[in-house]
Description:
Layout lengths: L1 H15 L3 E7 L6 E6 L5 E5 L3 E5 L7 E4 L8 E6 L5 E5 L4 E6 L7 E6 L6 E6 L5 E8 L2 E7 L7 E2 L12 E2 L8 E3 L5 E4 L1 E2 L3 E4 L2 E4 L9 E8 L5 E7 L10 E4 L19 E6 L2 E6 L2 E5 L7 E4 L5 E4 L6 E4 L5 E6 L2
Antiparallel strand pairs: 1-29, 2-3, 3-4, 4-5, 6-7, 7-8, 8-9, 10-11, 11-12, 12-13, 14-17, 15-16, 16-18, 18-19, 20-21, 21-22, 23-24, 24-25, 25-26, 27-28, 28-29
Amino acid sequence: MKKMLLLLLLTACTSAGFCQTVKVISSGTKTSMRGLSVVDDKIVWVSGSNGTVGKSIDGGETWKWMIVKGFEKNDFRDIEAFDGMTAVIMGIADPAYILRTIDGGENWQVVFENKEKGMFLDAMEFWNEQSGIVIGDPLKGHFFIARTFDGGQTWQAVPDKNLPVADSGEACFASSGTNVRKLNKSEAVFITGGLQSNVFLRDKKIKLPVIQGTESTGANSIAVKNSKTFMVVGGDFNTKDSAKLNCFYTKDAGKSWTAPQQGPHGYRSCVEWLGKNKWISCGLNGVDYSPDGGRNFTWISKESFHVVRQAKKGKAVYFAGGGGRIGKLVPAN
């Protein structure tokens, strides 16, 4: 009987694609990491609190840790890396900064600074090595947006008259650097949370069905499969184990939304599309994986992570979170 049960389990595991697990490859520091950029299967950059940036060029086997000089107290909640030498990091507030390195993190140049009261940057996204966008919380009733067209060397704020209008109590969560994503070669989509939770798509503002209504609720992350198919995750970060209204996907560019039959098992701060019908999401109480287009998620790890990203040029999937924790998706033994 035991052999039969084992055989059935292995068969189900293989056919459903659940044979995934998460291996913790680094941990033990006081840094909370929410910035993660995976260039390829070998080059990985992370960023986080206490001015910390980390880099691996051997697939996570070894790490080089750096404290950005002069920014020891800053929280770098997003990072975009282009290779082993060039990267851009985003400091959220007090004041808000964007810095850039071209020598592997040895030196950093300030390429954006904003000391305006209330300025709070949430996430960056790049279409390619030249064109990028950064999103910030509302100022004077409008979301802050700036663009770069030279790989992050310079940034230009979008004029107020062209900025999206924010509802009262609506903001963005700087939880994983993924509340803004490229939609196609020239457009982006971003999500909000708080008292109101919406998706901003082209000139449309579409109400999301995720839990909302308090400062700790709403959409945290969006992942895009194509211009019509994307997934949103979130929840209430004050109740990490609650799975109430925490995940929805659309196949018609937001005209309708579908909840999974079995969704992620708690609050989720990040979601990533892994190709074909595979999705993965992480949060404070673990990692969920779906091989069937988001209809069903399986809890594959109870390790806490803030962010998950797949290699831009490759298939490797990495995670980053609190306590200096870095993980990697690997086949189960």
